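Fill in residues.
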């Protein structure tokens, strides 16, 4: 992948993970100088922390840092903590907190299937309707068998090196629903199969793909290119395989080059017809490409019809084409339900969103917050997030939540972010929230920066945005933010927010060295206290 493409992916990802084999610079295992006493004056930054902040890399940059004692909330370090910074994916902390506060960690969602006509001798004289509930996983990612499954570089970041799919069947929930339909006595549907996606208005302003209450495989088609022999066509695999969709491969296998030769691109040559092109290196792992579905309801309808047919139900309707929403009833009669899928506890969804920094999923949280507040307008979810800002006692004038995931527009101060962390610890879902955060050396994109004395002790949501500057042949790291907890060397619990803005870089390779230096600041904090 070229540098510009990678940077574009990072900007869209907010804090997407990257392949650890391309991390440049840094000094794993290097211990920061240690001091043992916290300053009485928060403006007197301890020497080890100041030394990390004074790295020449940040000479032309802005840094905000707030450290508080986790128990007393005494301010230990305050460096421009009331100033407002570009937040990146740490914005997800606000949407996730509001979601948990609205629904509760143990709440589940139910996706039912109804018939709109009588059932006689196995034949539904009418339609089958799958009613979308906003379940982000719909039985995928292994949630029917246990904890949610994901990988460090999730398939939603298919443009990043090392992106991979999870082992769970993305159609597992639809298979369960189809089996239940059969168990209810249905063998044929005389009418149509429809997806009722009226839970909220499908929203298109925050993400490249629409935010919809019906979700199958994150509303994405995964395309895997598997290397063969040099000069030969790569093998192709893709999922989910849904009626009306096809994938053609033009990918060739090239000689191994340390990952530099792995570059694939998926395009649409006609509606429902995808083509994947590019190269994969001999001996490499399968290389992932992806396509974001622009009509989630039609996609889910086609997938559900295929699963019904596989389960033995005769469906007379064409499985391809538009979702016939005009046929939806105003309501569903008692006794019309023929199947229902219960989601995993919503704690699992929050875990996914925060660990992998799932942009689309964070926006879905915001839409679902709006639903719980009686609205079908996703932007009303942001209003509810501002209500939480008020209830948590945060400074609304220093908090700008312009989407749920962390676009280039959302901004807040370190003081607001640490205030949110403080407030979260008093809530019944506090441990779920904390456990969902990336951990240094263990999970999320912080897994890439392990080998430090603080491994396992820095627990924080991260956010990253970087863009190329083609006119000057350089890169600008717009922001790298870290917000969360540090279990300090002394055993003291700290709450912190670190926001580094506008770091000029000579190349994309330098980005990873800078991210390491920012992690080194948190290691210095760990060592100091």
């Amino acid at each position: 992948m070229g540098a510009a493409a990678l940077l574009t992916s990072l900007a869209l990802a907010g804090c997407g993970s990257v392949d650890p084999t391309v991390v440049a610079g840094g000094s794993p295992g290097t211990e920061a100088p240690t001091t043992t006493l916290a300053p009485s004056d928060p403006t007197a930054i301890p020497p080890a922390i100041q030394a990390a902040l004074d790295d020449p890399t940040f000479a032309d940059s802005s840094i905000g840092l707030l450290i508080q004692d986790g128990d007393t909330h005494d301010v230990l370090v305050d460096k421009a903590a009331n100033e407002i910074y570009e937040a990146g994916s740490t914005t997800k902390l606000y949407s996730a907190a509001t979601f948990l506060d609205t629904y509760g960690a143990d709440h589940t969602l139910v996706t039912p299937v109804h018939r709109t006509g009588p059932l006689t001798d196995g034949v539904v004289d009418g339609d089958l309707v799958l009613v979308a509930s906003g379940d982000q996983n719909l039985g995928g990612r292994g949630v029917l068998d246990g904890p949610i499954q994901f990988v460090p570089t999730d398939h939603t970041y298919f443009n990043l090196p090392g992106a991979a799919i999870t082992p769970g069947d993305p159609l597992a929930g639809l298979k369960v629903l189809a089996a239940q339909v059969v168990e209810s006595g249905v063998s044929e549907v005389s009418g149509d199969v429809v997806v009722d996606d009226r839970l909220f208005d499908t929203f298109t302003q925050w993400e490249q793909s629409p935010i919809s209450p019906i979700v199958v495989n994150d509303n994405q088609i995964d395309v895997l290119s598997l290397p063969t022999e040099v000069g030969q066509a790569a093998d192709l695999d893709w999922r989910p395989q849904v009626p009306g969709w096809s994938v053609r491969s033009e990918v060739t296998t090239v000689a191994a080059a340390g990952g530099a030769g792995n570059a694939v691109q998926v395009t649409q040559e006609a509606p429902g017809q995808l083509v994947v092109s590019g190269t994969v290196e001999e001996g490499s792992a399968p290389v992932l490409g992806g396509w974001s579905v622009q009509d989630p309801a039609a996609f889910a309808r086609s997938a559900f019809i295929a699963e019904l047919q596989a389960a033995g139900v005769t469906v007379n309707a064409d499985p391809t084409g538009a979702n016939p929403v005009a046929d939806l009833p105003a309501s569903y009669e008692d006794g019309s339900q023929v199947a229902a899928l219960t989601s995993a506890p919503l704690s699992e969804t929050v875990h996914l969103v925060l660990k992998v920094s799932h942009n689309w999923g964070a926006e879905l949280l915001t839409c679902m917050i709006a639903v719980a507040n009686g609205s079908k307008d996703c932007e009303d979810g942001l209003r509810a997030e501002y209500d939480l800002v008020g209830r948590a006692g945060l400074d609304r004038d220093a908090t700008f939540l312009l989407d749920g995931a962390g676009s280039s527009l959302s901004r807040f101060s370190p003081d607001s972010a640490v205030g949110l962390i403080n407030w979260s610890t008093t809530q019944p879902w506090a441990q779920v929230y904390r456990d969902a955060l990336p951990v240094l050396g263990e999970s999320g994109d912080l897994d890439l920066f392990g080998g430090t004395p603080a491994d396992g002790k820095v627990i924080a949501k991260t956010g990253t945005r970087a863009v190329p500057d083609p006119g000057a042949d350089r890169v600008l790291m717009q922001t790298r933010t870290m917000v969360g907890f540090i279990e300090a060397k002394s055993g003291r619990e700290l709450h912190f927010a670190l926001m580094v803005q506008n770091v000029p870089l000579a190349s994309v390779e330098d980005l990873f060295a800078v991210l390491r230096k920012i992690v080194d600041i948190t290691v210095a904090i760990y060592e100091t206290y």
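The mean pLDDT is 91.
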